Amino acid sequence: MSRAVLSLGSNLGDRLGHLQSVLDGLGRAVLAVSTVYETEPWGVTDQPDFLNAVCIVDDPARDHWAWLRAGQELEQAAGRVREVRWGPRTLDVDVVTVDGVTSDDPELLLPHPGTPERSSVLVPWLEIEPEAVLPGHGSVRSLLMARPVEDRDSVHPRPDLRLFRKG
Ligand SMILES: Nc1ncnc2c1ncn2[C@@H]1O[C@H](COP(=O)(O)OP(=O)(O)OP(=O)(O)O)[C@@H](O)[C@H]1O
Ligand SMILES: Nc1nc2c(c(=O)[nH]1)N=C(CO)CN2
Question: For position 129, which CATH number holds?
Fold first, then answer.
């Protein structure tokens, strides 16, 4: 069994459609999906706002590498072009954590090292898994509480935008 937490982001083109393409692509493996959040960009701040969401997936046939590959294939299908680090993209799928797996391979760092500083991941993750723990870092709730208030406040729920699980 391989349960994973995936972070989804888009700030180019049909942003909601790109997030939905992940749920369509992963089908019955998706156990839960968060509300969609409109988030102010971090890293490179001079770019359009992102839509972000988090989903929890489980598939006995997939290991951590298979989750990475699945995410990359979905990014390709959304027409993603790799240009600027932290720059605009049609779709970004990050593997946040995979149960029982840590990795220091640069191709697949687990847990994803950016997570403790990213309210755009912590807020939606906490919503769907209130007792979540980021291995090596403590509870997601405490990580979020440690973020500056202006950072937490840059993550805005968009209940008018809905994602649907298939299957
Ligand atoms: N946990 C992970 N999830 C997704 N990609 C990862 C992970 N760990 C390492 N990578 C590697 O990161 C590389 C660059 O990914 P990407 O272009 O999405 O980075 P980014 O989104 O700009 O920055 P960040 O990784 O900080 O979110 C990929 O080639 C991938 O192999
Ligand atoms: N708010 C927000 N900002 C970002 C995001 C993202 O998903 N959300 N992804 C980036 C590239 O990894 C760079 N900046």
Answer: 3.30.70.560
Phi first, then psi, for residue 41 (nearest 5°) are -65, 135
Q: What is the mean pLDDT of the chain?
A: 95
The residue whose CB lies within 8 Å of the most ligand 1 atoms, and thus the one to mutate among 109, 118, 125, is 109
The whole-angstrom separation of Cα 122 and Cα 143 is: 8
- Ligand 2 geometric centre to CA of 77 (Å): 19
The boundaries of the domain holding residue 141 are 3-157
pLDDT at 83: 73
Distance of CA 35 to the CA centre of its chain: 12
Asked whether residue 165 is domain-assigned, the answer is no
How far does the centroid of ligand 1 lie from the alpha carbon of residue 128, in Å? 23
Statement: residue 120 has pLDDT above 70:
yes
* 3-class DSSP assignment, residue 15: helix
Tokens of residue 134, six digits? 């980021």
Q: How many domains does the chain have?
A: 1
In this prediction the ipTM stands at: 0.96
Q: Are 143 and 116 in contact (CB under 8 A)?
A: yes
pLDDT digits (tens, 9 = 90+) for 19-38: 999 999 999 999 999 999 99
Q: Has residue 164 been placed in a domain?
A: no
Q: Is 89 a catalytic residue?
A: yes
In a domain, 145, yes or no: yes
